[in-house]
């Protein structure tokens, strides 16, 4: 065989394989991967030769000039159907045994191998850190008992030190966990609350290239003056003081080089660990570890993009306050790794001695207004993010962590706080169930009693607000309530604020002041002007319906009087319901047709005699019809099976 003939033969085979692949996928009625379909067609084409050889050999025994008859055409049709049926069987078996996505492609294998090697190094490093801080026995499940407080304190200290050594992602994770009193015992919350995001500063030689690349020129050209000694250094960024050519004093926040890749790798590890815990442990599923890890990852990624922080800063500053000052960002100079903002003159709260109940009250009032009225609030008000300015007022810094609440959540939180102020258990329960997703089976009466006892214990004079938060989280956990991330950010901010308020004014009672704020807010809501505006808005919304109501009532009464009253109900008005029912009927019809064709094929193949259709193969007309029906039945059954397997894989786990 010459080269040209070989090429023509190969091209013809390829065309036939592609035609068979297209027909197999079309008959199955679902979209499958092109590579999978092509390989099934190639394997089917290879298997067709040995299967078809005996049938084709039967025609080779014909004498010269002998007519094989019209039945031979039917045999060719059956062979063509079998050529398509074999890849269909292969595809259905692959769909059942090896669902799409379970085996990665070559490119994914290479990328996955590189990522696995990189994660392996990081796993090894994290394991060494854990063992160095005494967490090895707990990783192997052989740690000491945690029934006594001393064991919890030792483990919490070891965990805090290990997270501190783990780097920026694990420090942030520990800081987030320190606010989740609903998840961790008090010993862990207190210990993790000591995690500080302060590290040794990087040398200027490593920071300068980042600034020059992000700002589009040398530092000395962009700024009139720039202090190379960092004002502060954290695990994500360093801050410097500078002066613009227009004379404004600014603070320049520069992201550490290479921090993005480190954080991405650690977030991948945290996500995989969360998936494992949720799939293998009951408590992991109950806490929703995957959602918690995803929320944590989103927050960290936002902190790595300084453009988001600049937008957060502008959003909070858009609601001016006479009590607290916010720095203004210079957005034209802000990038994802550099943030330029107004410099506030003063001292960090952590370094200011003395106490001021007025400043504490102003800070609490500002945060509650941000949460309950504006819906954009500072989610990390620890002492390092708060300054006492030279004029004696407060300044808020670091808007990398900002919470946002929609109007419905704000309204529910307002009702929750006002019901707490009235000590109304029913109102508190209703408001709480509006804030959190309502479980299908919840003991509302028991929850109402628990919240009533909670208020009786904690809303008296001189009560401890820290114990109040812990008790509230315990009730939420006991009744299977899941706090949404945005609401958890509110509680985290209030829990962090509590320590800041105590630093500002020892003995400051957050509960009393929050109830006072609720009273003032309630008075504002019920003032004459506000109440009149609310009534006017509701009346404007109801007016069109009120105008149409008399005519509709008259029509209903007239129809009832004359015996023409009827109710029209449209079944399956939703397109999704119609599609589901259509698909179900389609599968039932295919199953009935396939079963009928199969039964008829068995009867025909079992019937003796009948006119001879293909003498060369000793096939009667009944046999030929039976084989055709058998192939048709197999095709219909395979179409139903592939839909069943595909639906199983698409179903949520």
Automatic annotation (TrEMBL):
It comes from the Bacteria. The keyword Membrane applies. Keywords: Membrane, Transmembrane, Transmembrane helix, Ubiquinone. Residues 194-428 form the ABC1 atypical kinase-like domain. The chain crosses the membrane at residues 6-25, 37-59, 71-94, 584-605, 625-645. The keyword RNA-binding does not apply. It holds the Pfam family ABC1. Belongs to the protein kinase superfamily. ADCK protein kinase family. This is Ubiquinone biosynthesis protein. The lineage of its organism: Bacteria, Bacillati, Actinomycetota, Actinomycetes, Streptosporangiales.
């Amino acid at each position: 065989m010459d080269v040209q003939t070989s090429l023509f033969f190969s091209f013809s085979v390829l065309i036939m394989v592609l035609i068979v692949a297209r027909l197999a996928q079309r008959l199955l009625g679902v979209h499958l991967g092109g590579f999978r379909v092509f390989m099934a067609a190639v394997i089917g084409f290879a298997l067709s030769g040995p299967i078809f050889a005996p049938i084709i050999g039967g025609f080779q025994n014909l004498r010269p000039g002998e007519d094989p008859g019209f039945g031979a055409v039917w045999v060719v049709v059956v062979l063509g159907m079998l050529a398509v049926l074999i890849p269909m069987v292969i595809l259905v078996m692959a769909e059942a045994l090896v669902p799409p996505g379970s085996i990665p492609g070559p490119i994914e294998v290479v990328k996955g191998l590189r990522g696995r090697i990189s994660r392996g190094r990081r796993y090894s490093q994290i394991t060494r850190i854990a063992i160095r801080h005494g967490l090895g026995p707990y990783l192997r499940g052989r740690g000491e008992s945690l029934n006594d407080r001393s064991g919890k304190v030792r483990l919490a200290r070891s965990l805090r030190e290990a997270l501190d050594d783990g780097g920026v992602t694990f420090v942030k994770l520990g800081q987030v966990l320190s606010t989740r009193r609903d998840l961790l015992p008090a010993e862990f919350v207190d210990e993790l609350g000591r995690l500080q995001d302060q590290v040794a500063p990087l040398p200027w030689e490593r920071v300068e290239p980042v600034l020059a690349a992000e700002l589009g020129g040398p530092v000395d050209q962009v700024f009139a003056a720039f202090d190379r000694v960092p004002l502060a250094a954290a695990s994500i960024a360093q801050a410097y003081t500078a002066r613009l050519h227009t004379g404004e004093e600014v603070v320049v926040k520069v992201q550490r080089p290479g921090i993005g890749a480190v954080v991405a790798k650690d977030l991948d590890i945290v996500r995989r660990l969360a998936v494992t815990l949720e799939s293998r442990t009951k408590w992991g599923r109950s806490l929703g570890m995957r959602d918690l890890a995803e929320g944590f990852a989103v927050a960290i990624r936002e902190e790595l993009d300084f453009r988001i922080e600049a937008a957060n800063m502008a959003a909070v500053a858009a609601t001016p306050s006479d009590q607290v000052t916010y720095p203004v960002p210079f957005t034209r100079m802000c990038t994802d790794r550099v943030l330029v903002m107004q410099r506030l003159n003063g001292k960090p709260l952590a370094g200011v001695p003395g106490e001021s109940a007025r400043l504490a009250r102003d800070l609490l009032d500002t945060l509650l207004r941000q949460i309950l009225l504006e819906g954009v609030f500072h989610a990390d008000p620890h002492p390092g993010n708060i300054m006492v300015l030279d004029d004696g007022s407060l300044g808020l810094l670091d808007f990398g962590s900002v919470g946002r609440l929609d109007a419905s959540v704000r309204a529910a939180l307002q009702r929750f706080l006002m019901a707490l102020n009235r000590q109304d258990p029913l109102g508190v329960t209703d408001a709480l169930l509006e804030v959190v997703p309502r479980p299908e089976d919840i003991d509302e009466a028991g929850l109402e009693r628990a919240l009533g006892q909670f208020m009786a214990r904690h809303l008296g004079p001189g009560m401890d607000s820290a114990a109040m938060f812990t008790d509230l989280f315990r009730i939420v956990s006991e009744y299977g309530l899941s706090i949404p991330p945005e609401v958890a950010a509110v509680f985290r901010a209030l829990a962090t604020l509590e320590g800041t308020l105590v630093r500002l004014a020892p003995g400051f009672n957050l509960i009393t002041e929050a109830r006072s704020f609720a009273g003032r807010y309630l008075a504002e809501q019920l003032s004459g002007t506000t109440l009149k505006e609310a009534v006017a808005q509701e009346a404007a919304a109801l007016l069109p319906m009120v105008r149409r109501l008399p005519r509709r009532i008259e029509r209903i009464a007239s129809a009832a009087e004359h015996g023409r009253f009827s109710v029209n109900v449209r079944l399956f008005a939703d397109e999704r319901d119609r599609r589901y029912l259509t698909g179900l009927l389609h599968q039932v019809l295919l199953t009935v047709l396939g079963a009928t064709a199969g039964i008829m094929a068995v009867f025909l193949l079992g019937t003796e005699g009948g006119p001879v259709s293909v003498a060369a193969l000793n096939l009667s007309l009944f046999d030929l019809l039976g084989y055709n029906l058998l192939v048709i039945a197999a095709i219909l059954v395979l179409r139903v099976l592939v839909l069943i397997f595909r639906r199983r894989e698409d179903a949520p786990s």
